[in-house]
Amino acid sequence: MQKQITGAFYGIAIGDALGVPVEFKTRSYLKENPITTLTGYGCWNQPAGTFSDDSSLTFCTAESLIGGYDVQRMAQTFVRWSSEGYWGAHNEVFDIGHTTRRALQRVGAGVSPLVSGGFEEFENGNGSLMRIMPLAFFLANENDIHQRYQIIREVSAITHQHFRSVLGCFIYVEFLRALLSLKNIAEAYLQMQRSVNAYVANQSFNEAEIKHYERVLQQNIAEVSEQQLLSSGYVVYTLESALWCLLRTNDYASCVLLAVNLGGDTDTTGAVAGAAAGLHYGIDQLPPAWVNEVVKSSEIGHLANRFMAAINTPMKP
């Protein structure tokens, strides 16, 4: 699992960093000016290799899980990022979503992280999906799907507690868990569909909400045309785009470049696709130049090693 963890940790940071300079650019613009490697400056005026809040909050999630699952500690780690730039690429925050900012302000003011997240329908951005990847490894040996769902729900709800955001995180983590044991991406996708559909069928979830993920859960998202794919900051569209890129490519670089060049919320689409691709292909198949060029490269590797050691150590009750 070490190569998968390290691949996922670098994979998210690189995918994120590829997208940072062209966030908000349109698909048509990127068809004329495609991203082919790590570039600098652009819309956020950051040097090449700079990752954003997507990776920072993912690394905060992993850092917190090293000590075991504690949602309060995790939320406080997020607050440390928002207030001090902890795990920021350059130890500062240059990008934070509105829903995440409001939620972390509430946590900082003493509100429980179990009720701090946005719960309105308009608060279904991709801000919890982008950071949820470490739970796939943390829950790799948790065989109770209901327990997995509850932990994913709580971690999402620190910032995003609407069911639609939670379900998106659940689908993604279940897919990543399947990728841990299945070498074929399409098979892992089918296994995710089976497990998620069986679980939601036995719950009293709102069917209208589940229908938002119909293209992911009931169809084959890989068969959707690029024109039908939206790559905005909406959680459903980010998940669709990331899965589409992974299912339609055969290597890490092709996957993340396809994701970023879809335009829109380029850093998060790149991050969510990059985490999955990095997990699947492993650190050895990531472009070495990108691994070396991403900001905080050595710290990312060290975190991956500490995270691996922690989840392989039986937790004290």
TrEMBL record:
Protein's name according to its UniProt entry: ADP-ribosylglycohydrolase
Upper taxonomic lineage: Bacteria, Pseudomonadati, Bacteroidota, Chitinophagia, Chitinophagales
Family that this chain belongs to: Belongs to the ADP-ribosylglycohydrolase family.
Annotated positions binding Mg(2+): S52, D53, D54, D265, D267, T268
UniProt cofactor(s): Mg(2+)
SUPFAM superfamilies: ADP-ribosylglycohydrolase
InterPro entries listed in its UniProt record: ADP-ribosylglycohydrolase (IPR050792), Ribosyl_crysJ1 (IPR005502), Ribosyl_crysJ1_sf (IPR036705)
Pfam families: ADP_ribosyl_GH (PF03747)
Gene Ontology molecular function terms on file: hydrolase activity; metal ion binding
Co-factor: note: Binds 2 magnesium ions per subunit.
UniProt KW keywords: Hydrolase, Magnesium, Metal-binding
Organism: Chitinophaga arvensicola
PANTHER family: ADP-RIBOSYLGLYCOHYDROLASE, ADP-RIBOSYLHYDROLASE ARH3
